[in-house]
């Protein structure tokens, strides 16, 4: 057994112990559909990059492969939407602006239809059509913990079973401190970014300083193992955002996490315009310059999210590529109008609920999305990218509320005051039993 594999297994074990909840449960999260949606989003998001490295199964970029990859998330999302419609649904302000952004993509798809755009819209539906009382924030946090645990176990299992296919020689220009790379010859970039984003979410859901430190240490080992420089820089920035979130949570002031998230957004939007040459950042500079010329030629509505996958290669750009920057990618996909709608949707998501914890958590997620997408496109509307559901997770969190731990019933026919109304500061009203929701 190689030293790198031993380090990976130890890091996974430490991370698991740090995010594990006590066995005594006080919140029936598993009864909520948002728990299962979040679990599937992180489990699939972390597992598939590792499977891709090991070349296990068909996990390429074709329409069918993308549909298979998203199937569990789409299934739970469909159930969530149906439940919202049966009980009482609403379209929050963020959902309305998302509809406008997808309207731009739909107009682009009239001339060049793309099943991927449809799949992306279906993925976003639980964030567009939400329960009138909001999703349960605690169920979302618990779902992320379990989903990340499943993803970590999958990564460890795939690495242990497939050995040299997953952990092998480093690329000449980068390597981990263990002398080998999780993803031989630089193929671990996507996995490194997913691990970094999952680490950030774990840090946001951790209240103990000791557990926080253990997650930082263990996730650093895994990110370093992938030899991904983009993931390492993103991880450092995400840890900073998590610290700002914890500070805001302790002081009850949104200033710290908001400042961190806004700074992340400014860096993401401006980074590619700092005069880089075509050779900078492993030739990402050439993609940025090319994308900027495209945007200048058609700035208002862009070219559609399938632009990069329908090219004929005559422009010298490899198929299935992206601009490697979220801001540029959105401008190419749906122009200034679509980008404006998406940014407004994010702002509304961060301000949607009256409860401070939901707003802090969603704002932190927005900052994490930005730092993950400075030199990559981590998650965005229109295509699956690296972790398709992460941006949807942001909007679902924005439509959530923290239920009180006491006074709620799991099943039965007794009517009770709706805890979500209490959390949101609304007048109490009778609530149907949970099994009828």
Task: Give the topology, please.
Layout (H helix, E strand, L loop, with lengths): L2 H17 L13 H22 L8 H25 L1 E2 L2 H19 L3 H14 L1 E2 L3 E2 H26 L4 E2 L12 E2 L6 H16 L4 H17 L3 H23 L3 H16 L9 H18 L28 H26 L4 H16 L18 H9 L1 E2 L14 E2 L1 H5 L6 E2 L6
Helix pairs in contact: 1-6, 1-8, 2-3, 2-6, 2-7, 3-5, 4-5, 4-12, 5-14, 7-8, 7-9, 7-13, 8-9, 9-10, 9-13, 10-13, 11-12, 12-13, 12-14, 13-14
Textual characterization of the structure:
With 437 residues, the protein is mostly helical. 62% of the residues lie in helices and 4% in strands.
Short précis:
The chain has helices at residues 3-19, 33-54, 63-87, 93-111, 115-128, 137-162, 189-204, 209-225, 229-251, 255-270, 280-297, 326-351, 356-371, 390-398, 419-423, and strands spanning 89-90, 130-131, 135-136, 167-168, 181-182, 400-401, 416-417, 430-431.
* Derived structural class: mainly alpha
Strand share of the residues? under 5%
Low-confidence stretches: 404-437
Main β-sheet description = 2 strands, antiparallel
What number is the mean pLDDT?
A: 86
Name the quaternary structure. single chain
**SSE pattern, N- to C-terminal:** HHHEHHEEHEEHHHHHHHHEEHE
Query: Cα distance, first to last residue?
Result: 50 Å
Overall 3D form: globular
Q: How many helical stretches?
A: 15
Q: Share of helix among residues? A: 55-70%
Number of strands: 8
Lateral arrangement of strands in the main beta sheet? 1-2
